[in-house]
Structures are given as C-alpha cells and as structure tokens.
Amino acid sequence: MKKIYFIFLLPLFLHSQTLDELVDLSIQNQLIKASQQNLEALKEDYKSIKSGYLPKINVGTTYYINDKEYTAQQIAKKGLTAYGSVDFILYDGGKRGDTFDIYKSSIKSGESSLEALKNNISLTVVNHYYNFLSLDANKDAKQKEIEQLVAQKNRIERFYEAGTATEDEYQKIVSRLEASNVELQELELELVTILHNLEYLTGQTVTISSGSTIKEIENKEEPNERFDIQALLFDTQAKAYETKAAKSDYLPTITLNNTFNYYDKDYDDENMRNGIYHQNVASANLNWNIFSFGETRFKSQSKQKEYLASKSNYDYEKNKALVDFKLALKAYNIAKAKISSSEASVKAAQSAYEVIKSKFENGLIDNVAFLQSLTEKYNAISLHKKALNDLEIKKAAIIYHSGEKIKEYIK
To answer: In Å, how far are 227, 308, 329, 341 from 240, measured between CA atoms?
Structure first.
C-alpha cells in the first residue's frame, strides 16, 4: 500500500516550474505584498481626507455639582449642559480640490510603481531562468566532454602500460580530465546559486522546467512609457498640485457653523430661575491670513522648486528610458546574428573533431590537437545554446523597455 501511495505522490515531488509559473510565484512574494499594503493604506488615507471635508457633527454633555452657589455669576448648585454642533468648510481657497488631486496622482503613482516592481522582478526571473538553461547546457556539454576524456584516458592508459605511449601523453589527458571536473563543479555551483536566487524571489523551493519561450512584441518602434517612468510622471503631477495647494493660503477660508446648547440648572436660591432652557447659534465665519512674514510665499516657493526638481528628474529618466529601448533593440539584433554564427561554429567544430579524433586514434597526430578539438566542439555547442537563451532574454528586455508586462508575453 505504501508503494502505491508513493507512486501517486511521486509526480508532486518531481514537479518543476515553467517560466510562467516562476514569474507568477515571484510577483506574489512578500515584497509585492508590502507594496500592495502601502498602496491600500494610501487609498484609505484618501478616503479619510475626503471624509474630513464633509460636515462634522459633534455632541457633548456635562453634569456638575458645585460646593457653593454663585448667583451673581449664575453658577448653580447643580446643573446639566449639553450641546450639538454642525461645522462645514464652505471655501478654503481651493485647497480641497488640490488636496484631492494630490492623492489621486499619488495613488496612480503607487499603482504604476507596483507594476514597475512586478515587471522588474519578472525581468530578473527571466534572466535567471535562461541563464540557468545556458549553464545547464554547458554542464551537459562538459559531462559529455568528460566522458570522452575518460574513454581516451582509459585507451591511452592501456598503451602506456604496454609501452607504446609516453607518460607525457597520458598525463596530458589526466590533467585535462581533472581540470574539466573542476569546471563541472564550478558550473554546478553557479546552477545552485541561481536556484537559491529564484527561491529568494518566489519564497519556495525551485526546480526548473525547460521549454518556455518569450513571444516577440509586434510594435518595436514606438514604445509606451515604462511603469517606473509613469510613476515619476504622476509624482510630478502631485508636486504641481502641492504647489497650488500651498498658494491657496493666500485666500480666505469660509466656514459655516450651527450650535445648539441645552441648559438645565438647579439653584438653591428661589429668586434664581430654575429649569430648562436652550439656545441655538448659527454663524458664518471668515478667516483670512493677510500677513505672516512671508510664510505662505516661502512655502509655495519651496513646493514650486520640488515640482521643478521632480519634472527635471522625470524628463531625464524618460530620455534615458528611450535610449535604453534603442540599445535593447540593437542587442536583440546582435543576439539573432549570434545564433546563425554559433550554428556555423557547431557544424565546423563537429566536423573538425570527427577528423582529428580519427587521426588521433590512428596515431597520426598528438593528443594536443585532439584535446583542443574536443574543447572547441563542446564550447561551440554550449555557445550555441547560450545564444538561443540569450535571444529570449533580449526579447524580454525589449518588452520591458516598451512599457509592456513581461508576464503577458511568456508562453
């Protein structure tokens, strides 16, 4: 029965993630969740600010007992007071609308920043994924190279023991074999390092499944603004609204108020009026700060300079992003050319290896030429597979710099 359970559970243990699954996991990590929570907090703060401009209703009550009664001041021995008030800001120089616009722009900036973070992480995962496949192909080529070296070592060893091969020939093979084993261990370390980096991003153990590809983006000439550039634009807009809000302090503030007071006083002195009475006061209030030793001017100038600094930063990063996009296109074209070149190199190295291997085994050439040919063959195979994987990375880079979501182009 235990064996049957193991057979059913085995696929779960052997499951490896595709690129799409790795990206899905990584854009749900704790860093993304923290950014989402910050964005939600900003939205809740905006709701609070909007509610603060609605009419405010306050109520209160007091019951008191005095040790002495002061009729002259109309302070009773005992009493109850209660009040209710309604306050509303009718006009604040336009600060209300500017404050709302500040929050709207800040929320849009937060949303764009969140998408930028997801896209950055996606690009990092794509790089790790295809670099892993390239290293894995290199490892496979190195293992096959080692297999060839072991076979030749065993063959030369027999000739050496028979006295028909020199020690120098034998030691060269042994030396190359040991060096290749060290290189294999280094490759395995690099592979493990990438897996650990992916585990850090995804928050779980990772095994990689090959076969994922990146779709080419159709329009490569007119990129959209990247998400991080959009966030900078919305930040700049928020700074502009902050400048307007600061200038609103030059204008008056008009508020409306209505207060209802209820009094119930109990005097020991019979000549004083006992009982209940109430009072209602409605008022319109104007407050205008006409002089503050330049406080409003300095504040508005500070906000204006913050806006100009933000705008300059946005313009700089926008131009830089356009240059990065053009460089990504050039890198992509170079990557395509490398594939054709590497295919030709594989064919040439394979043909040369077959000829040299035959001559070496028949004693027509020494092992130096053979070892060099063997290395060139497997290096060419590794470089070709790396070129194929690099092309996928370059596709993802173009998508990233085009302001598109990388995840939507993974297949």
So the answer is: 20, 9, 35, 53
Tens of pLDDT, residue by residue over 304-361, are 999 999 999 999 999 999 999 999 999 999 999 998 888 888 888 888 888 888 887 7
User: What confidence score (pLDDT) does residue 351 get?
Assistant: 87
CB–CB of 368/356 below 8 Å? no
- The answer to whether the CB of 328 falls within 8 A of the CB of 394 is yes
Q: Which of the pair, 78 or 270, is modelled with greater confidence?
A: 78
The dihedrals phi and psi of 269, each to the nearest 5 degrees, come to: -75, 120
Q: Which residues pair with 260 in a beta bridge?
A: 84, 280
Q: Which domains does the chain have, with CATH numbers?
A: 17-54+92-252+288-409 (1.20.1600.10)
Asked whether the beta carbons of 201 and 124 are under 8 A apart, the reply is yes
Q: Report the C-alpha gap between 252 and 58 in whole angstroms.
A: 24
End-to-end CA distance of the chain: 39
Cα-based distances in Å from 301 to 99, 247, 252, 298: 18, 9, 20, 5
Count other C-beta atoms under 10 Å from residue 240's C-beta. 21
pLDDT over 80 at 159, yes or no: no
- The DSSP letter of residue 204 is S
Cα–Cα separations (whole angstroms), residue 170 to 144, 162, 175, 181: 20, 12, 9, 17
Burial class (CB in 10 A: 0-12, 13-18, 19+), 370: buried
Give the dihedral of Cα atoms 160, 165, 169, 171; nearest 10 deg: 20
**What's the chain's Rg over C-alpha atoms?**
39
Q: What is the pTM of this model?
A: 0.84
CA distance 119 to 403: 9
